[in-house]
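Service request form, structural biology core

Requester: graduate student, group of Dr. S.
Request type: structure prediction, single chain
Budget code: on file
Notes: please return the result as structure tokens.

Sequence provided:
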Amino acid sequence: MHPARLASFARAIAAASALLCCASTFAQQPYQVLDHWKIGGTGGWDYLLADPDAHLLYLTHGPRVEVVDTKTGKVVGAITGMKGTHGVALNTDGKVGYVSDGGSNNVVVFDRHDFHTITTIPAGTNPDGMIFEPVTKTVWAFNGRSNDVSVIDTATNTVVATIKVSGKPEFPVADGKGFIFDNIESANSISKFDAKTKTLVDTWKLSDCDSPSGLAMDEAHRKLFAVCDGKKMAVVDADTGKQIATPAIGQGPDAAGFSARFRLAFASAGDGTLTVVDAAHDYKVLEALPTAPRARTMAYDSAADRVYLVTAQFGATPAATADVPRPRPAVVPDSFEVIVVGRNPDNRLKH
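Core staff response, request fulfilled:
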């Protein structure tokens, strides 16, 4: 081949290789930070929950729950009068919601139209993670200090069963077929419950996955995704309890999510990363997106294909005392915010 043509051919091959490389990189990094919504206020936070149909986001924030319009990023309401909120669950009737008020050992029932409190239901000690189970129309409040579950009949708003668990319960998920799964953080395990019989039917030990907290589920393909300390996610078969894979995630995770449409699992971590895992093929990590320090809780919005995370700025950590041996730094007032993560609108322009 003529030297000039050979050089031209080599340049073309190099350009094509670079293009393929970039295309592969872009395909492996589908998400980016799109926006920051300033919420403000004071105090800490815990779980958040998206309501895709209503375009709302519920944020537990100290003694209240902020309600945010996901189209505008503005706060449109609040559920107030509580002591220390943790989780939110939504009835499939579209009318009623539930808040675990761990500070008062109650579950608060609220109206989703104007967010007023309908009634208060005594639960166990420090109700934390919670879920609405659609087959039995019950709410399950997992009590973090009494190590049990309060099962609430939503027709009567009363506790109809209390189920002991083997340790400190964390985040639950429901499979839509009458079964509920929950991480038992202190026992490094996942417990399975039958909502129809209101019983604990199985507990599966996790391998090399310490202190599981956040939990998500691929209902169609019967897979659970538990996020653990040590930068690991445990992928577990929801029928057999067998652990299938352990992809790497960020340090200090607290929440997980799943996209049924794209078959992606998400893990948010306190080190400021959102890990995206391919749940359709080999459970490989597709992306470790930088977010912000302490943005370790999240909610996935299936309608918008967005992940919402929350964090704030922090002041200095106070000195340890006998009463508080592990003090936490104070939240800087009015710095609480939502980080909005979504699909990159034009990967070709991102390098």
